[in-house]
Structure of (diamondback moth) hypothetical protein:
Amino acid sequence: MSVTPSKAALSLINNFKPSKELTTPNKDANCMQRTVFKHIEALHQLLVEWITKRISTTLPCKTITKLKSPKNVTEDCDYDEYPPELEPRTTALVCALDFFKGVVERMEKITKQLKAALKLFPSDSPVTCSWLPHMIEDEANRMLECLQKELQIKQIVTENIAHTTDKSLLTLYATAWDLEAYISVETFAYLFVEFGLSPLRNDITPQKSSPDSRH
């Protein structure tokens, strides 16, 4: 025997509205793809910042090499006899080193977040047309590893370039600062282009600042 619903029950049924929109598999997938894209975009931006800072500090690094050449400084001279122009250039490198450390720290954080987001995808399901989750994770790990290695080199240069007068060693330091052996922007371009981001360039023009980017 059927029972006629009460007015209260009918009112509840007729006025029922979901508290929030129900998700669908496609909508979830699109949301996850956007999350991955945001993290890839963040990695791209960090690399742009790194390259821009490296270019802006290449001149003071080369200037230090020139100022520390044997004709300007002898090995037995006192620190106070060093060319006065040396201090602002070395300060610029120290500030740049702190900046590079910050970039690596942020990249470590973003890489961890990206790995977590990629775990939501099936291992055999591409995130984009041709990039599987593990491929993106491997590339992100490689970016981080490259910057960590370059950071170690820049720390060595910063700590030693002001304390040597050996011409060959000074040239080596300046070259190591400018020509980054571990960062291959051409290789990273494949992932960035897949996500609609512009390829990285090694000739990014830094913003104008004081001479030799002293500050």
Q: What stands out?
A: The first helix runs from residue 7 to 14. The chain has one domain: 40-73+81-213. The radius of gyration is 27 Å.
